[in-house]
Amino acid sequence: MHYDVIIIGGGVGGLAAAIRSAELGKKVAIIEKNEIGGECINRACIPSKTLIDTAKIVNKILKSPWIATSAKINYNLMNKFKDDIIEGIKDNLYQVINKHKIDLLSGKGEVKNEGEVIVNGKVYTYENLVIATGSEPLSLADFPLNGKNVVDPWTAMNMTNLPENIIIVGGGVAGVELATLFRALNKNVTIIELMPRLLPVPGIDIEIANEVKKRLEEKGVRIYVNTKSRIIKSDDKVIFQAQTPSSNEEISGDLAVITIGRKPVTDGIDLKAIKVETDQRGYIKVDNRARTSNSKVYAVGDVAGAPLSATKAWRQGIVAGDNIGNRNSQMPKYIPTSIFADLEIGVVGSTLEELKKNGINGREVKVNMKEIPRAWTLNETEGFLKIVIGEDNRILGANMIGENATEVINTITLAMELSLKIDDLYKVQFSHPTVSEIITEVVQRAIVGEIY
Ligand SMILES: Cc1cc2nc3c(=O)[nH]c(=O)nc-3n(C[C@H](O)[C@H](O)[C@H](O)COP(=O)(O)OP(=O)(O)OC[C@H]3O[C@@H](n4cnc5c(N)ncnc54)[C@H](O)[C@@H]3O)c2cc1C
């Protein structure tokens, strides 16, 4: 059977590429060895956010004494709710796949020769190939996964009985989100992070990292930063040897969740045979149109390297589909990051510190959430928005922590992607009272002075 486009991997990246190229008139097949939706829908973004959102609702009720009720999470019902959401989203995906007459081939896609993919022993030929096989947790020598009490995030989130003492290795995005969730479920949570700060991720301001640390510690999460650790025992208990800046101690828990270390999935795909180049860690090299070193082969999503986010995967899939369909399309300059800690975080572009290292000058303007009326009605006045403005008055970066930060950051991304100047934004009015007013306030302050 011959296809214009064969896509290996039915995660968000592969689906976006499939749908877009089918929309542009191509005959498309998508090969999936497991479940359509990949990591994001089945095991990562959607399940983790469903659980975290539940925890947040409970927290909100508990901190609102004027609501005359008590709230407690029923873990089993919450998990069922999560499973129903995943199924609902997948049902929609199947409908879109059918609508666009995309063939869904179940099985592992293998590539041995140029122009051919083998699925269940059957050979399919293609004009264009899209590799969208994602990434998977890496079992590291210091933290060997055992599927029992040293596990990856997904296994932890699906445990029917979560133990009392949970140690999270890695204080990055996944580590912070899981700590939020487990603490809300009343577990004793410890984070161990090698770097001197939480969220050591490009684009994330140190002030945000400090605020997150403060909030988590206030909620009772124990946090070790600047700490090199390794598991020395994982029988009944998991025991870590941890070297902090001032001491060498043993940290013990019932469960270790390892959030660091992933590797690209390219098993069964002979990249050398089809002349597709990778970087040193095995991630496929692509240009800003998702093209690999082979002009007929595209790669999208995690398998094509950082940032490992569904946000990027989806867009890269669209860009690949566009280019396969002869539409001129490139990756956007800015890909925002959202973090769903107990206070949301939205980040886009660079911090002032990062820009300075590259010889770019700028200035920061900051508005605190407590200066925004809507923050008060939502009973969540902590947090802030900080933007970095370049010498030409364009926004070069933004960091927000606070209620609805993951929504506000999208509006700022829009302004940045369209290269709007602060003066352009000054002409725009947002409705009152909304959290987005924090953008009008930051613009107001950047140009004249504060209103709130
Ligand atoms: C706990 C956690 C939370 C996260 N939360 C967020 C979030 O809130 N927002 C966000 O943007 N990102 C989030 N991410 C990251 C996000 O999940 C990934 O970046 C995204 O799923 C990558 O999509 P993908 O399509 O590249 O790969 P995947 O989703 O991994 O899909 C790849 C698919 O390819 C299939 N496959 C692999 N090899 C073959 C083969 N040879 N043949 C057939 N099929 C194959 C796999 O079965 C899989 O279904 C989170 C990650 C984690 C771990």
Please provide a written account of the structure.
- The structure is a single chain.
- This protein is an alpha/beta fold and 452 residues long.
- It folds into three domains: 2-136 and 263-324, FAD/NAD(P)-binding domain (3-Layer(bba) Sandwich); 150-260, 3-Layer(bba) Sandwich (FAD/NAD(P)-binding domain); 343-447, FAD/NAD-linked reductase, C-terminal dimerisation domain (Enolase-like, domain 1), CATH 3.30.390.
- The protein has 13 helices and 22 strands.
- It has helices spanning 12-23, 38-42, 45-62, 75-99, 153-157, 173-184, 206-218, 310-324, 352-357, 373-377, 405-417, 422-426, 437-447; strands spanning 2-8, 28-32, 103-106, 109-110, 116-119, 122-131, 135-137, 150-151, 165-169, 188-192, 222-224, 228-234, 238-243, 248-253, 255-258, 262-264, 297-299, 337-340, 344-349, 362-368, 384-390, 395-401.
- Strands 1, 2, 3, 4, 5, 6 and 17 form a seven-stranded mixed beta sheet that branches. A five-stranded parallel beta sheet has the order 8-15-9-10-11. A five-stranded antiparallel beta sheet has the order 18-19-22-21-20, sandwiched between helices.
- α1 (12-23) runs parallel beside α8 and α3 packs across α4.
- The chain is globular, with a radius of gyration of 23 Å.
- The mean pLDDT is 95.
- The structure holds flavin-adenine dinucleotide.
- Residues 8-14, 31-34, 38-40, 44-45, 48-49, 108-109, 132-134, 153, 174, 265, 268, 301-302, 308-311, 313 line the site of flavin-adenine dinucleotide (FAD).
- One of its GO terms (biological process) is 2-oxoglutarate metabolic process.
- Its EC number is 1.8.1.4.
- Belongs to the class-I pyridine nucleotide-disulfide oxidoreductase family.
- This is Dihydrolipoyl dehydrogenase.
- Its cofactor is FAD.
